[in-house]
Amino acid sequence: MMQIYDSLAREKRLFVPGDPARVTIYVCGPTVYDHAHIGNFRAAVVFDLLFRLLRRRYGEKAVVYARNFTDIDDKIIKASQETGVPISEITAKYARIYDEELAAFNCLPPTLKPCATGHIAEMISLTERLVAMGCAYVADGHVLFSVGKFREYGRLSGADADERLAGARVEVAPYKENAADFVLWKPSTPDEPGWESPWGRGRPGWHLECSAMIEKALGETIDIHGGGQDLKFPHHENEIAQSSCAHGGAPLARYWAHNGFLNMGADKMSKSLGNVALPRDLLKKHHGETLRFALLSAHYRQPLEWTDDLIEQSKKQLDRFYRLFNEAPPTEIVEAPESVVLSLEDDMNTPEAIAGLHDLRDIAMQLNGEPKRRAAARLKAAGELMGFFANDPAAWFKWSPQGEGLSAEAIDAKLAERAAARKAKDFKTSDIIRDELAAQGVVIEDGPQGATWRRG
Ligand code: AMP
Ligand code: ZN
Questions:
Q1: HSE-up of 296 (CA within 13 Å, CB side)?
Q2: Could you read off the pLDDT of 159-214 as tens digits, one per residue?
Q3: What are 80-108's pLDDT values in tens digits?
Q4: Which residues of 252-264 are buried (b: 16+ CB within 10 A; e: fewer)?
Q5: What is the rounded distance in angstroms from the CA atom of residue 242 to the CA atom of residue 253?
Q6: How many of the other CB atoms lie within 10 Å of CB of 363?
Q7: Second CATH level (architecture) for the domain 3-259
Q8: Ligand 1 pocket: which of 27, 28, 33, 40 to mutate (most atoms <8 Å of CB)?
Q9: Does the structural domain 267-397 have CATH classification 2.60.40.10?
Q10: What is the distance in A from the centroid of ligand 2 to the CA of 210?
């Protein structure tokens, strides 16, 4: 059975879905106006792992994973005004890039990718219901949620109301009955994007977007809601207030899962601090699997410091595993070993699971022949649970950073030249080619099927 740390209950709990034939998970996705940074990717990779574990346990068809694109937001409007590029062009571009980059991290596509712009009618309907129930009020063209109407407000984020307000710099506005009330709908000026609504032309607030998308895509109570820990307040607190009020007090999610921050030195990696590393740049220098390994090397609830050393160590560890697969290609398809499954199902304990991979490798290294290949197959199955080992070992060792070293085609051509020289018994030329390639960090290995190469 799986255990998940539930941020609302503040304890690790046995995971019991509402309906094992339809397990639902929602993760707040990116606001698509710029490139994501590797801190944003931590959430995406952590919840990709959870998606994989749920699929293994409940079946691929039974798990519905929705990750949204926030494509209405003041930051997007600003980006459009500054660049002159239409909003829809900006959002489509960055959504596409986000998906492409996550694919390089071997993240599975979510089952559903709802967009805020595709759910305006649902957002208006949800707001109308909240107003009709007296949980929201209309003031100065805005619709505001009245937090005093929701007794459980603050349960997720904990801290007392004043501290929350100070910490999140909640906007103080004259039309608010209570400073903590938050916007469901706000008016748009003629040059801002807007939609007709019972309260005039306007646009939704960010929190409302997720509540409406969840209701439409997954239902009133979902199994797991995920996101980074910075989203607990105000975003998730507000999602809970909106959804629970609209649904007669039904919980929005049975389990709340939050990942810790990715830090640069002592600070959280964030656009506003400017201390970001972008997957777009990192992927030019490092294999996506190396970066995925780095992100999963710490427990998802712990902070993780992003350093060059972390990336280098991740690459070294993966090299060790791929060397085994090169030596002893796994033949059969086997079940993942229970020890690694147990670690992962224990609140995604990836450090323990990775230690388990090293143990499996050490066992394999003591074997030979068929037993070694079987042990390698067990290791491969264990790593695949985490989205590792997706590459052919030869391709893994041939990969090189963009713009560095000889291309694979150039090396293949040199090898062909060398083979021709050897055939003609011109060993001098053959040796020169070997030395040339060695100087470029390319190692040739002669075998019964001819020569192969890898980057050393
Ligand atoms: P944002 O684009 O800032 O709304 O963030 C998108 C997702 O990335 C959210 O789930 C955030 O909690 C998460 N996130 C942003 N910065 C970090 C960070 N430095 N470490 C971990 N997660 C982050
Ligand atoms: Zn959300």
A1: 33
A2: 666 666 666 656 778 889 998 899 999 999 999 999 999 999 999 999 999 999 99
A3: 999 999 999 999 999 999 999 999 999 99
A4: bbbbbbbbbbbbb
A5: 13
A6: 16
A7: 3-Layer(aba) Sandwich (3.40)
A8: 40
A9: no
A10: 5
